[in-house]
Design brief:
The structure holds two protein chains of two kinds.
Chain A: E1 8-13, E2 16-21, H1 26-32, E3 56-59, E4 66-67, E5 77-80, H2 84-97, H3 115-124, E6 142-143, E7 148-150, H4 160-168, E8 174-177, E9 184-187, H5 200-204, E10 210-212, E11 225-230, E12 239-244, E13 257-262, H6 275-278, E14 294-297, E15 300-303, H7 306-322, E16 327-332, H8 338-351, E17 356-359, H9 382-387, E18 395-396, H10 398-406, E19 410-416, H11 431-436, E20 440-445, H12 450-454, E21 457-460, E22 469-472, E23 477-481, H13 494-504, H14 514-524, H15 533-536, E24 541-542
Parallel strand pairs in A: 1-5, 16-17, 16-19, 17-18, 19-20, 20-21
Antiparallel strand pairs in A: 1-2, 3-4, 3-5, 6-7, 7-10, 8-9, 11-12, 12-13, 14-15, 14-21, 22-23, 23-24
Helix pairs in contact in A: 2-3, 7-13, 8-13, 8-14
Chain B: H1 16-19, H2 22-47, E1 78-79, H3 94-98, E2 104-110, E3 118-126, H4 135-139, E4 145-146, E5 163-164, H5 166-171, H6 177-180, H7 182-187
Antiparallel strand pairs in B: 1-4, 2-3, 3-5
The chains are: A alpha/beta, B alpha+beta.
Chain lengths: 545, 188
């Protein structure tokens, strides 16, 4: 809020007097003190429509019930949200909403997280008085975009999706057509909902009218477990929920992650995520996941166990670090978490003096950017890497690394989380010749790629959903990615690989978990002083600049 | 928790006659013989046309002969079909959710007809795990799964054969025959 102090007004809600900022709606004010008023069309991120009439409350001295999503609090106002009259109104409104809504629940993907179901159990519970047949809309279950299915019969015309396309994505694809019980949501002719934020309309739909084509029918919502995480797809670091299914492995084609959903964070992404982030999880369950350490002998790769792999890695890295002509270079990736980067730097500084860090923010993704959420830098942790000093001192950029390799100055190259040949633009060119000249190429990453194919040693690492770690977004907000499930196959979290590597190199790195690594990190880096996993919290916190 | 030993005591001590076992064997032989003689006499009396109040015991020649089942008996599951011929099941996983034995495995997929929208891609019941509670039948909102097939012989030589796939569940049909004789059986 800008300009002057906010005027506070005294309002009584359900018999208790509270002070609210003037201009707050009754619904928001009540929510801020823990009184939940049911609603469908109201969404804090969208304009107010007042279409569903579910949020009716009784206000003394006003004869009719008022919609609390539009009515603002006033001085001396007395509001009742739970009187018999209000309850009766809610019940009737719900009955009205369900007049034409099909009871498709066995089919509908929203079952289990549907607003109608939830409020029916809380406020409805009536015996149906309807004897007429339901009005059948013309279109049932048809795609309105590459990722979205629409079922007009299930729509309760709350217009959240229409307002989203108007106000948030500003792409204006959806509209409301016709009137009365023939009214439908549809796309304007020739248009489809394909804006970069289209997936959000599925999240905000309070019923099952809009469903995601990607996760439709894969698992029911009550089978899914949830982990709080941070989107790894760009440096915005949008807060997300990972919805995963590990208890019923025959579902979702055997894949663990079912879908990603945005998690509210007022400072980062509000209620939204972009579609690039939403669908970026496919690699986690890809069949080309690296599941065991591999060694390449005469062109054929063989599986080895972790101690053997780390022994080879340590030996090769040590040999290159102590050689005169041929250096040890490490391609540090801002895809890695702060803990991994810190341990990598610590191990190399302490055990492999003379190592050279290469740092690049290049990714295989198109550097799409807009003025809303998406950032051109597609790495989640560029800020964190720079804060650790990996972007500046003693490091080279990708072009310098390539040149050094071509000139034969690199003995051992450890590549973290980066497919060199797959990078977009010039960064991905000419690596074939450069990697030829490298004696030992070690790849640390989670999926098979051209670089992993060329590598002499492959160390399989966990993905962001399988390890705990912090990432710092481009604004310097440190956020926690929580572990959802165990790493695939024999792969290990990156920090664990580096810890074991450090011990193989003869050091003592007694970290029991990423928390301890972070603790040490917070002691070392002044910007993170005093922080811990607990103090970061679910919403993250800004680091000192 | 520490491992504890629970002592189980016999509810009743055997009497002296029971402990020397020979009188008990003789008593058993006496009971068997009594049944034989009584039933034989009853059958002979019936055969020569003399009506008695009691009928002689009859052994059912299973498996050639079946005893009638009560109509409420839960037998092997089967899946019903739509009028068009496809399975009624829409893969809502209600039965899978409610199943206390966790023996139902369903995968859903898109149905070509948008009116139906969803169907079961695979539907497998592990009959080796099933406890025949019937909750799946109660939970089904589409009347797609039933347990009145009348097939009670659910045995096989491997665990794999106990997995009933969707084809088998769809091929099974309600067979009213085993239930027909039930009333007569009760009267006998």
């Amino acid at each position: 809020m800008s300009g002057g102090e906010t005027k506070m007004v005294k309002t009584t809600i359900d018999g208790r007097e509270y002070e609210f900022a003037e201009g707050a709606t009754i619904l928001e004010a009540a929510r801020s003190v823990g009184i939940m008023i049911p609603h469908y069309c109201y969404h804090p991120g969208l304009s107010i429509a007042g279409a569903c009439r579910m949020c009716l409350v009784e206000i003394e001295k006003i004869p009719k019930l008022q919609i609390s999503c539009y009515m603002t609090v006033g001085e001396g106002m007395v509001v009742h949200t739970d009187t018999e009259r209000v309850k009766r109104a809610r019940k009737s409104i719900l009955e009205f909403h369900l007049v034409n809504h099909p009871t498709d629940c066995p089919v509908c993907d929203q079952a289990g997280e549907c607003g109608l179901q939830e409020y029916y159990m809380l406020h409805g519970l009536y015996t149906s008085r309807i004897r007429e047949n339901k009005v059948r809309k013309t279109k049932k279950a048809f795609p309105v975009g590459p990722n979205i299915m629409l079922d007009q019969e299930r729509c309760i015309l709350c217009s959240r999706c229409v307002r989203f396309c108007r106000e948030v994505s500003k792409s204006h694809e959806l509209g409301m057509f016709k009137r009365g019980d023939r009214e439908v949501i549809d796309t304007f002719s020739g248009r489809q909902v394909d804006n970069p934020y289209a997936g959000n309309v599925v999240d905000i739909c309070p019923v099952g009218a809009l469903t995601s084509r990607d996760s439709r029918f894969k698992t029911r919502s009550w089978y899914q477990q949830t982990a709080e995480s941070v989107c790894p797809r760009c440096s915005r670091g949008c807060n997300i929920f990972i919805h995963y299914n590990i208890k019923r492995p025959w579902k979702n084609e055997g894949r663990k992650v079912v879908r990603l959903k945005p998690r509210f964070n007022a400072e980062v992404n509000k209620w939204w995520i972009c579609d690039e982030g939403r669908f970026c999880f496919k690699y986690i369950d890809d069949p080309d996941r690296l599941s065991a350490p591999l060694r390449r002998v005469d062109g054929a790769s063989e599986t080895i166990d972790w101690p053997a792999a780390l022994a080879i890695a340590a030996e090769r890295m040590l040999a290159a670090a102590s050689a005169q002509e041929r250096d040890l270079a490490v391609l540090v990736s801002p895809q890695a978490s702060n803990e991994e980067l810190f341990l990598l730097k610590k191990v190399c500084d302490e055990r492999l003096p003379g190592w050279r860090a290469a740092f690049s923010a290049a990714t295989p993704f198109e550097p799409t950017e807009d003025d809303f959420l998406r950032r051109a830098d597609k790495n989640p942790n560029t800020f964190g890497a720079r804060a650790l000093g990996l972007g500046e001192d003693k490091s080279m950029d990708l072009a310098q690394l390539k040149r050094a390799a071509l000139e034969g100055r690199i003995g051992t190259l450890l590549v973290c989380y980066t497919d060199l040949t797959g990078l977009t633009g010039e960064a991905g060119q000419g690596w074939d010749a450069a990697l030829e000249k490298v004696d030992t190429l070690i790849y640390l990453g989670h999926n098979d790629c051209a670089t992993a194919q060329r590598a002499d040693l492959v160390l399989p690492a966990a993905t962001f959903a399988e390890r705990e770690g912090t990432v710092t977004n481009f604004e310097g907000r440190i956020q926690l990615q929580r572990r959802a499930f165990d790493p695939a196959g024999e792969s290990l979290p990156g920090w664990e690989i580096l810890r074991r590597l450090g011990e193989t190199l003869g050091g003592e790195y007694e970290f029991e978990g990423p928390e301890q690594v972070f603790q040490r990190l917070a002691e070392t880096v002044p910007q993170l002083a005093g922080l811990s996993y607990e103090s970061i919290g679910p919403a993250g916190c800004p680091v000192k600049k | 928790m520490a491992i504890t030993v629970k002592k189980i005591e016999f509810r009743r001590k055997l009497t002296f006659l029971e402990r020397i076992w020979l009188p008990e064997i003789l008593r058993g032989l006496w009971i068997t013989n009594r049944h034989f003689v009584v039933n034989l006499s009853l059958h002979i009396l019936n055969a020569v046309g003399i009506k008695t109040r009691r009928k002689g015991a009859v052994t059912i020649q299973y498996p050639e002969q079946h005893r009638g089942y009560h109509w409420r008996l839960r037998t092997a599951h089967y899946l019903t079909r739509r009028e068009g011929g496809g399975p009624r099941c829409v893969g809502c996983m209600m039965c899978e959710t409610i199943c206390p034995a966790k023996c139902i495995y369903i995968v859903a997929k898109e149905h070509p007809d948008p009116e139906t929208e969803k169907q079961a891609a695979s539907f497998t019941i592990d009959m080796g795990k099933c406890v025949y509670c019937g909750l799946c039948v109660e939970a089904c909102p589409e009347d797609a799964i039933r347990m009145d097939s009348g097939h009670l012989e659910i045995s096989c030589y491997s665990r794999q054969e106990m997995m009933y796939p969707i084809d088998r569940l769809l091929a099974t049909e309600h067979d009213p025959a085993p239930y027909k004789d039930y009333k007569r059986f009760l009267q006998e």
